[in-house]
Design goal:
By secondary structure, the protein is of the alpha/beta class. Helices cover about 50% and strands about 15% of the residues. The protein has two domains: about 5-175, NAD(P)-binding Rossmann-like Domain (Rossmann fold, 3-Layer(aba) Sandwich), CATH 3.40.50; about 175-230 and about 235, ProC C-terminal domain-like (ProC C-terminal domain-like fold), CATH 1.10.3730. The protein has helices spanning about 10-25, 40-50, 55-60, 75-85, 100-110, 140-150, 165-175, 175-190, 195-220, 220-230, 235-240; strands at about 5-10, 30-35, 50-55, 65-70, 90-95, 115-120, 130-135, 155-160. Helix 8 (about 175-190) packs across helix 9 (about 195-220).
């Protein structure tokens, strides 16, 4: 992609996205900038990924065609106010901050900014993320497709209506924590039956991974998959 992207914030999610972009070849390292105030951490990321690191958000925004806000929700307003004079209609803004709508970004900037909202989740750190993408009032169809292509490098992507983002946040944004809980509880049940926890955890986690792939790759509804492995009088039926 013949554009420069600036990450405002270089935390785990930002670096996961950067790795996806570099690994896929969608962006060259010379076209990726990240802003990070911690100089030691910035140096570490610069050495690890080979991208340009700066310590000033305004400097990063000024050099970019695409600005990706990868900061905590409570600092989004301050960051946008800081870089406002570096943003014009030629720049695309992506926000991944939970609870920050495209309309809110437009309001803070007080201009016809091209804004796209993305709700990713933490499995993006392994390239297995689930991202929902919705566009703001002034973003074009090309902007929307550009953002979807970016996030496809760290997992699956769906198009969404912004009205659905809160529900999506609950399902896929917070969802991993619930699956971790289920995996842990099944492993602990195995431990009670005499397995060591590490073995039980491997069994539980791999089973969860396989079950998820069955849903995604076979197209069979979960209730039918349950029926397929539930023999009357068998161990699965007894566990229901």
């Amino acid at each position: 992609m013949d554009k420069t992207i600036a990450f405002i914030g270089a935390g785990k999610m930002a670096t996961a996205i950067i790795k996806g972009l570099l690994g896929s070849g969608l962006f060259d390292k010379n076209h990726i900038i990240a802003s990070e105030p911690n100089k030691d951490y910035a140096h570490k990321i610069e050495q690890e990924l080979g991208i340009k690191m700066v310590h000033n958000n305004r400097e990063a925004a000024a050099q970019a065609d695409i600005i990706l806000l990868a900061v905590k929700p409570f600092v989004v307003k301050d960051v946008l106010t800081e870089i406002e004079d570096r943003i014009d209609d030629s720049k695309l803004i992506i926000t991944i901050a939970a609870g920050i709508s495209t309309n809110r970004v437009e309001e803070i900037l007080e201009k016809t900014a091209r804004v796209v909202k993305v709700m990713p989740n933490t499995p993006a750190l392994l390239g297995e993320g689930m991202s929902a993408v919705c566009k703001g009032l002034h973003a074009s169809d090309d902007d929307f497709e550009c953002v979807k292509e970016i996030f496809s490098k760290v997992g699956k992507v769906i198009s969404a209506k912004e009205d659905d983002i809160d529900a999506i946040t609950g399902v896929s944004g917070s969802g991993p924590a619930f699956y971790y809980y289920i995996i842990d509880q099944i492993a602990k049940a195995g431990e009670k039956l005499g397995l060591d926890y590490k073995t039980a955890l491997t069994l539980s986690a791999q089973t969860a991974l396989g079950a998820a792939r069955m849903v995604l790759e076979t197209g069979v509804e979960p209730q039918q998959l349950i029926a397929n492995v539930t023999t009357p009088g068998g161990t699965t039926a007894e566990g229901n």
